[in-house]
Amino acid sequence: MSDIADRVKKIVVEHLGVEEDKVTESASFIDDLGADSLDTVELVMAFEEEFGIEIPDDAAENIQTVGDAVKFITEAA
Amino acid sequence: MFDLKGKSALVTGASGGIGAEIARALHAGGAVVALSGTRVEPLEALAAELGEGAHVCPANLSDPESVEALPKAALAAMGGLDILVNNAGITRDGLAMRMSDDDWQSVIDVNLTAAFRLMRGCLRPMMKARWGRMINITSIVGQTGNPGQVNYAAAKAGLVGASKSLAQEVASRGVTVNCVAPGFIATAMTDKLNDEQKAGLLSGIPAGRMGAPEEIAAAVRYLASPEAGYVTGAVLHVNGGMAMI
Question: Domains along chain B?
């Protein structure tokens, strides 16, 4: 896993309190990891802070899985 | 009880009678306070009176940029932002038939829109901390209506709806959102009423007197406290019984 993927995973594990092995690339925050809509907003905020980037609302809507997040951040960073 | 040590509170409209008293009550409870308002002089006088742990953060709530900047300035000054008191408000009274769009809009802008923007601006630090208190000062007229105040009553009623909605969004994160709704409170504004007007007002108040700013401030301090953690989406009426709703 890339450095970005590791950092994303760490944030997801900490924030959602889920087992590390459940945080796979295809895992959906809401369907697989038990996040609610507020959790997804908080995750996006946490990604913004961790990586010093800004994630616009329309992009944030498309970030549904761990892989989506890694892809967006990799392109933005 | 109602100890606020270690908490940081932003109070808007702190240059006014009720706002200043709220700031005093929170500060007396141990909170660091950021005093906001448009007029710098009374804010600095209040900060000097309170001494340590009081910061002046002027803002013009009719200017969106100034509103956006305020939570950041307060956070920078205090090093935290745990309590927001949206107390600032303006009136542009007039009968609806003659009320201009401008009088309508300016009251909505300051009393409702700015309050929303400030709540939004405070959400991030509060949600991260998993602790926050938002207290919006509404008014009895938001629920009862008042001739000559369609704009003011609409803004205050709007604030109640906004508070209840936000309360539901963030309750799981330890952030509460409540309203305090004052009735007739003795301030510089009510001092201008003549005896006849005062007697008319008092006849509708079971307590037989006007409220004091300290009585609003005490309600705010309670809602800001750790003890009020299970109270959210509530409207606490402080009105001497003039409307029991």
Answer: 8-238 (3.40.50.720)
pTM above the 0.80 mark? yes
Q: pLDDT for B118-173, tens place per residue?
A: 999 999 899 989 999 999 999 999 999 999 999 999 999 999 999 999 999 999 99
Q: How far is B239 from chain A (nearest CA, A)?
A: 36
| Helix/strand/coil for B86 | strand
User: Is B124 part of the contact surface with chain A (CB cutoff 8 Å)?
Assistant: yes
Domain ranges of chain A: 1-76
Cβ contacts of B170 on chain A, cutoff 8 Å: 38
Q: Per-residue pLDDT tens for B211-237?
A: 999 999 999 999 999 999 999 999 999
Q: 3-class secondary structure for B9-43?
A: EEECCCCCHHHHHHHHHHHHCCCEEEECCCCHHHH
Q: Summarize pLDDT for B62-87 with one digit per residue, the tens.
A: 999 999 999 999 999 999 999 999 99
Work out the minimum CA distance from A47 to partner chain B, whole angstroms: 13
Q: Do residue B170 and residue A38 have CB atoms under 8 angstroms apart? A: yes
Q: Which residues of B touch A38 (CB under 8 A)?
A: 169-170, 172-173
Residue type, B167: A
| Assigned architecture for domain A1-76 | Orthogonal Bundle (1.10)
CA neighbor of A57 nearest in space, from A39, A45, A70, A49: A45
Q: Virtual CA dihedral for B21, B27, B30, B36, nearest 10 degrees? A: 120
